[in-house]
Amino acid sequence: MSGAFRHPLRIGLRLGLFLGINSAGLVDHLWRLRRVGKGSDPRSCAHWLQRWSRNTLRGIGIQYSHQGRVPTHGLIVSNHLGYLDIPVLATTGPMVFVSKADVERWPFLGSLARCGGTLFLKREQRSHVAEIADSFAPIVEGGTVVAIFPEGTSSGGDTILPFRSSLLQPAASHRWPVTPAWISYELEPGDGAVADDVAYWREMTFAPHFAKLLSKRVIRARVRYGEPIEGVDDRKVLTARLYEAVCALKAEGDRERAAR
Fold first, then answer.
1. Which of 103, 123, 162, 196 is most exposed, with the fewest beta carbons within 10 Å of its own?
2. Ranked by mean pLDDT, which of 49-53, 99-103, 223-227 comes out on top?
């Protein structure tokens, strides 16, 4: 029997908390937007996403922590394991995310992503990639960090896929600082594998994956930040340096885990 069906009470409780917390988050967003006159600008959206990401992760049994200095300007680049990465990164600070366009159509989660100011990217359209990249400047110059996943897809977490450079052109053109980050997850012994039960990749479908996620005793999520890379005006050079930096963060994290 799969893990998703061994703990129906745990799944039901956490699903109820997830729906309740995020319904309250949507109401909060609409109230701020309509009554207070705030909530539609990137900075307000980013702060909203940070607050409600923390509430949501606690409600569904995910413990989160981070190491290193959280950036307050420029871009963040990170490895990518799946849909959990956005709320996990968001707990560390206010930021606007770039996500694949499919997420906007997901029931419930798409609405939450829109409220958080997420930029939805159609990677198959080169003109749309350039359009999304052009929208970074007012966000960054307005004081909000933009977070991207330059692998272009998710993985099981055992490796870091090559980075695509297109979304880093604005950072190179403006010489913004870009901070590398590495996200990792851990499960309790005997509670499954991250690649199978936490990462969202390959041909997985959302509903059964999310049920399995909710069935875990606890999921520990950690973000490790490196030092920002600044003043690089060549997109390809910047991309290569960031890839090396994220790989180095992964190596540090793997060594630390092996030593425990």
1. 162
2. 223-227
Region of 68 please: left (phi>0), alpha (psi -120 to 50) or beta. Answer: left
Tokens read off for 217: 């005793």
**Cα(151)–Cα(155) distance, integer angstroms:** 9
What domains can you pick out in the chain, each with its CATH number? Answer: 3-253 (3.40.1130)
CA within 13 Å, CB half, 36? 12
Q: Compute the distance between CA of residue 74 and CA of residue 57 in angstroms, rounded to an integer.
A: 26
pLDDT of residue 216: 96
- Mean local confidence (pLDDT), 106-118: 82
Tokens matching residue 178: 């870009």
CB 76 within 8 A of CB 147: yes
Buried b / exposed e along 35-69 (16+ C-beta atoms within 10 A):
eeeebeebebbbbbbbebbeebbebbbbebebebe
Which runs of consecutive H residues, i.e. helices, occur in 64-217? 85-90, 109-115, 126-134, 136-141, 169-174, 194-197, 206-214
In 3D space, the residue among 107, 108, 109 whose CA is nearest the CA of residue 99 turns out to be 109
Beta-bridged to residue 99, according to DSSP, are: 120
Task: Kindly state the helix (H) or strand (E) to which residue 62 belongs, with its residue range.
Answer: strand 62-67
- 145-148: strand order across its sheet: 62-67, 219-225, 178-187, 75-78, 145-148, 95-100, 119-121
The CB-based long-range contact list for 28-33 (8 Å cut-off, 24+ gap) reads 28/52, 29/115
Neighbours of 6 (CB within 10 A): 11
